[in-house]
Amino acid sequence: MSVAVPRDEHEYIYAVARVRVLETHLLDRATLQRMVDAESAQAAFNILMETEYAESASEAGDVYDFEKGLTAHLKWVYDYLASFMPDSFVLDLLRLRFDFHNLKVVLKAKLLNFEPNPGALYDWGTTPVDVMSSVVSAAIEGATEIRSKTLPEGLLECIKEVLREPSVREDPQLIDLIADKCYHQTRVALARASGREVLQDWVKAAVDIANMKISLRGSKLGMDKNKLQLALIPGGKVSIESLKAVAGEGIEEWLEFWARSPYSEALSKFVKTEKGSIAFTELEKWADSYLAGLIQRGRHLAFGPEPIVAYAVAKETEIKNLRIILTGKLNGLPGDMIRERLRDVYA
Amino acid sequence: MEIRVNATRQELMRLKNRFRMAKRGHKLLKDKRDELMRIFMQLLKDNRQLRQRVEEKLSAAYSSFLVARSTMDPQVLEEALMSPTAKLELKAGTRTIMNAEIPVLEAVQKGNIYSYGLADTSAELDEALANFSALMPDFIKLAEMERTVEVLAGEIEKTRRRVNALEYVLIPELESTVNSIEMRLAEIERSNASRLMKIKDIVRAH
Fold this sequence. Notes:
- The complex is a heterodimer of chains A (347) and B (206).
- Chain A is mainly α and 347 residues long.
- Chain A contains 17 helices and two strands.
- Chain A has a two-stranded antiparallel ribbon with strand order 1-2.
- In chain A, a hairpin with a 4-residue loop joins strand 1 and strand 2 (277-278).
- Chain A starts with 12 loop residues before the first helix and ends in an 8-residue tail after the last helix.
- The mean pLDDT of chain A is 89.
- Chain B has one domain: Helix Hairpins (Orthogonal Bundle), CATH 1.10.287.3240.
- Chain B is built from three helices and two strands; from the N terminus they run ααββα.
- Chain B has helices at 9-70, 74-80, 123-205, and strands at 87-97, 100-110.
- A two-stranded antiparallel ribbon of chain B has the order 1-2.
- In chain B, a hairpin with a 2-residue loop joins strand 1 and strand 2 (100-110).
- In chain B, helix 1 packs antiparallel against helix 3.
- Chain B is rod-shaped.
- Classes of the chains: A mainly alpha (347), B mainly alpha (206).
- Chain A binds chain B through residues 67, 71, 97, 101, 104-105, 108-109, 112, 114, 116-117, 119-122, 170-173, 175-177, 179-180, 184, 210, 213-214, 217-218, 220-221, 231, 233, 280-281, 283-284, 320, 323-324, 327-328, 331, 333, 337, 341, and chain B through 63, 66-67, 69-71, 73-76, 78-80, 82-83, 85, 112, 114-120, 122-124, 126-127.
């Protein structure tokens, strides 16, 4: 399957106009605030029922099944976007995440011989899971030429790379590390082929931030040097060689490394110098907001695929916020604890 | 209630031996009961402290897991946890306290508990798993301790029943039987003496 490339930017005019209408339905901070301050989870859910989530949320039935509602809504968003998109480029770029996630599940299930829980799969990727599953089975059985017209090149490469790793059955974490790397590389290739500057900036920053998380968490969890080098992702603004050179060092060396990177200013948001520790909750919140902020730069472009991508990212952020609020309310987390985890809103 | 036996000297000797044995057994069992009670009370205190500690840690672990869950898609969380590589090896044995067989459990954790990618999962999940993993040895210890409490409670109950049976049934019965045999023998003795005196009188009269 060849890489989709966006058409002429003027062909997105209709789709952008449709997205402009959808943007007006994004939940604003005041609504989320009302949900956080609601006296119970049911009251927060009732506020959600007054918004465009009403139809999807009613599928859930009650607040305890809110995940069903959020999942149904996300699926609806992608189906709806697909109904007026001039080409497959935007949706391919956005739905790669789901494809690579499904591929991880399929690879683990096939290599470790178990039946995956259907709840672990997204059913709105670009490639059907059964197609993926048959290609993975053929590859494991030793098919010399793994080719499929229905499987994107990035996914095929990922399968090959995973199967080249000899200890993948004993250490299934390698599947995730390799798949995450392939996912980001595929996105970078897709954005590069599009020639769109905002998109390229966005995916490269996503690579850097993924590397930041991998390096800091990996070193905190005691991941060995070889594994860390394998996990680090090329294609970002920070060179992969310089990253690999630090692999195996301690967390302080990594913090020094990132302090010399273009992301040095962000470190103060999540590095607690007095304790010498990293507030990962803050790091993740900053990372989500930073990446969403980057793509939002393209939101006001009149032509091109960027406003559509920006809308989809804003929508995913909104769903994440709703999940944080409703899980927190259902389990009686204090309002402050919920609020400090909420991501920036782009309504 | 008395034991129905023949009022003979031989029986008296046998009952007196049983009586002495019962007294000694009673003392031993009372000592055993007291010692079991002492161990039991200490164990209860330790158990209460351990349970409280486990519940606090469990609550913290669930709380961090909850936060991790709230920031991740359910599909991502499910995928992250679907292939655990960490293994918990449990060695089970027994030891005895005052003849009561109690369990001894030893848990050894091996392998990497973080068997998922780091780019799209939340660091809060690391914390939750670390908390659950750190909880495991205490969890196993608690199971061992609670079973020990259960076994000791059963043993105390059994010993208490035996002590009571000796103290309120067997010993009084033996005591009263020995008394009645002694009285019966004394009566026979007196009856013999008077019979002899009577015979002596008859012989003298002739």
